Request: fold
Amino acid sequence: MGTCSFRDFERVCRILGLRPGRTGTVWEGIDPTGAYRRVAVHVHSKGRDIPTGTFHRMLRDIGLKDEEEFRRVLKDGRLDR
Amino acid sequence: MDNRDSPGGRLKPMVSIKSISEARARFATLFDEAALKGREVICENARMSSPRRVSIVSTQLLEEWLANAYRFSPTIERDETTGAWQVFLDEISIYTWADDKDAAVEQAVDLALDYAQDYLDRLDLFLNVADRRRHYPYLLRLAHAASRDEARKVLGF
Reply:
């Protein structure tokens, strides 16, 4: 279990097809599996590394199984399922 | 009314069901039944292809039921690696982190209130997403809060 840079998390959100929502604190959209995904990040937390517990909950919200899948999506630039 | 001898296990309605036209004609009476006596009133639109029903219940009772059945249990903990304080509101998938514990809590309140507003604005979307649909009663509790202080209490802080 590890932390994650905010930039990497945003990059994976974009790869999955999520976009910043209308409030500016939300990433949302339909992922490649056709599911609606939403994850909220407070404006004051942007840019800061995401702590472990939060990171793993956010992974669940964007539909990824675990950190390994997150790293794979980040590396490959796509979700492979 | 006795339901024990009903054939096929089908029960006689215990709550009276009114058609829309009947409810419209007697709305003041039905409102008093719900508000003053706590009686649930069900209205049915039988003209729809699949008839839909709506319940009218006392807001006070609804708030009591929600408060008893949909309690928030926030988790506040410090991350050993980053040193940040994390707040988890797992009931509505809201998480925040900050250097200061109080700041993390206030950010969680911000995000929860934003989510409640967004959810009610786009109810048709969220009610059609299974893992978001279950957030509704929690967010309804939050939406009934009259102040930020009350919202904070609803969230369990």
